[in-house]
TrEMBL record:
SMART domains: HTH_MARR. InterPro entries: HTH_MarR-typ, MarR/SlyA-like, WH-like_DNA-bd_sf, WH_DNA-bd_sf. It comes from Gulosibacter bifidus. Pfam families: MarR_2 (PF12802). PANTHER family: HTH-TYPE TRANSCRIPTIONAL REPRESSOR YETL, TRANSCRIPTIONAL REGULATOR, MARR FAMILY. This is MarR family winged helix-turn-helix transcriptional regulator. Residues 14-156 form the HTH marR-type domain. SUPFAM superfamilies: Winged helix' DNA-binding domain. Transmembrane segments: none annotated.
Length: 166
């Protein structure tokens, strides 16, 4: 799918949103909120973790060597202070350990403990089942590819704007 060229009325900040633009944005927000609520319910049934804590486990679970705290914060799209607090909570639960990098004593790496790996695997299975039932079952292959293209484009545009403002 080619990158679209937004009509002038979509790039003018003073122009009111069209009914279709409002419906698309509301649909995106509502579907995200409903998915988060359902994920939170399922997470509460299967653990004592919050959604943010599971997100941390999910990112660390995909990196056997762990992640530097700033990389983890970037992947989780959370503030570094908020992430540090959540990692501390996970550390107290015995699910995450922090250590310094071999080549840089100032760099702190977070990684899953054995208990963290077990919890991650348990919740990964539950989360995958939830996503297939509540999200992917409503999309055919073409819609999934289109949605992926659209959401990635939106993220790239927002991230580029954030980098310019920093």
């Amino acid at each position: 799918m080619a990158e679209p060229h937004a009509p002038a009325e979509r790039t003018a900040s003073a122009a009111p949103l069209t009914a279709e633009e409002i419906a698309a944005f509301r649909g995106l927000l509502k579907s995200g909120a409903l998915l988060r609520r359902e994920a939170g319910r399922v997470l509460a049934e299967n653990s004592d973790l919050t959604g943010v804590q599971y997100e941390i486990l999910r990112h660390l679970g995909s990196e056997s060597a762990g992640l530097r705290m700033h990389e983890l914060a970037d992947r989780c799209v959370h503030s570094r202070s908020g992430l540090t607090y959540q990692v501390t909570q996970l550390e107290r639960m015995g699910l995450v350990a922090r250590c310094t990098a071999d080549n840089n004593e100032r760099a702190v790496i977070a990684k899953l403990t054995e208990s963290g790996e077990e919890m991650h695997e348990k919740l990964r299975r539950v989360h995958t089942e939830l996503l297939r039932e509540t999200f992917f079952s409503h999309l055919n292959d073409e819609e999934l590819r289109t949605l992926t293209t659209i959401t990635q484009r939106i993220c790239r545009g927002i991230e580029a704007g954030l980098e310019e403002s920093n």
